[in-house]
Amino acid sequence: MILREAFYRWQKGVLTIGLCLGISATGIGVSAQSRQGSISPEQTGSSLLETQLAKDQKVLSLARQVIATARYGTLVTIDDEGQPRTRIVDPFPPDDEFVIYVATKPVTRKVEQIRGNDKVSLFYFDADGRNSVSVMGRAKLIEDLDLKRQMRRDADSAKIYPDFPDDYLLIKIIPTRVEGLLPGYRGDRETWVQVGVNFEEAR
């Protein structure tokens, strides 16, 4: 009985010493890493931000490729009864901030609908690659003469716009979100939610 109690006391003492040594070793390790800056919370947050920014840039780069391949898009506006309306358009390529322009006539229904509700979506579909891009944002109607002259393309011919620049209007789509089915990004398997990038509130 005495021997058994002595054994238990000895075993408890060994465990206690081992636990203390383990804690000390862990503390030493953490202190060394902290001195070296390898686990700094600021650096961890910075690394995560850099990783997210790199992913966003990749997603937007792939989205540009899909848009260039598809070329034509479907512009969705909302009429005065809340009904979405669609039509095929030939947009300009996205600029550095992913702003997209669409040329049209001032008398078209989409212009009237944008005046009533500036929320729009622009959808591109690449059938061969089975890729798609949705650009959601707010639209502004641009009537600046210098910009219209600067941006006019060969496709915006006198046959379509015989009274240029008076019958020529630019729709400026400022993105709030870009998402899609892209090469390497096929969406969530369960919910089908697509990969995307959020932008700041439309400027």
Short recap of the structure:
The chain is of the alpha+beta class. The chain has helices at 2-36, 41-70, 109-116, 145-151; strands at 73-78, 84-89, 100-104, 119-126, 131-142, 169-181, 195-198.
Report on this model:
39% of the residues lie in helices and 27% in strands. The radius of gyration is 30 Å and the shape is globular. It is of the alpha+beta class and 203 residues long. The model is unreliable at 1-39 (pLDDT under 50). Strands 1, 2, 3, 4, 5, 6 and 7 form a seven-stranded antiparallel beta sheet that branches. It has a domain at 59-198: Electron Transport, Fmn-binding Protein, Chain A (Pnp Oxidase, Chain A), CATH 2.30.110. It starts with a helix and ends in a 5-residue tail after the last strand. The chain has helices at 2-36, 41-70, 109-116, 145-151; strands at 73-78, 84-89, 100-104, 119-126, 131-142, 169-181, 195-198. It is built from four helices and seven strands. β4 and β5 form a beta hairpin.
